[in-house]
Design a protein that fits this description.
With about 120 residues, the chain is of the alpha+beta class. Helix content is about 55%, strand content about 15%. Helix 1 runs antiparallel to helix 2. The radius of gyration is 27 Å and the shape is elongated.
């Protein structure tokens, strides 16, 4: 979702383009001065609003751990879950888990949308 100022700025810019088109079509520019000034003021206000919007930053490790802790005993839920439900969850999350019998290890991979695989190793 775009910040509110973005739509206001785009609307003001579209209005200014229409005024410029009207002038190019032969309308007397002096008839549009007040409306153009108003549109330019709105565009400047929208840009100022956008300039004040803080950039989104990532979450800290502590915030991520707190979010995970808030989920409760995930391990217990997963152990008790229906295998078909777990398969659907893994597919939805793009998680692939392969058991290496020789090493007696699970190898899991997660593919974020538009990203390469990132592997995670761990035994169960």
């Amino acid at each position: 979702m775009l910040p509110r100022g973005t739509s206001h700025r785009r609307g003001s810019e579209a209005k200014l383009r229409r005024f410029q088109d009207a002038i190019a079509a032969g309308i007397d520019p002096s008839a549009l001065v007040e409306a153009m000034n108003e549109a330019q003021e709105k565009r400047a206000a929208a840009q100022a609003e956008l300039n004040g919007v803080p950039k989104r930053v990532g979450r800290s490790a502590a915030e991520i751990h707190a979010m995970i802790d808030s989920l409760g005993d995930v391990k217990k839920v997963i152990r008790q879950a229906d295998p078909a439900e777990l398969q659907r969850l893994h597919e939805a999350l793009n998680v692939e888990i392969v058991y290496n019998a020789t090493a007696r290890m699970l190898v899991s991979s997660i593919r974020a949308v538009g990203r390469d695989k990132a592997g995670v190793r761990g035994g169960t």
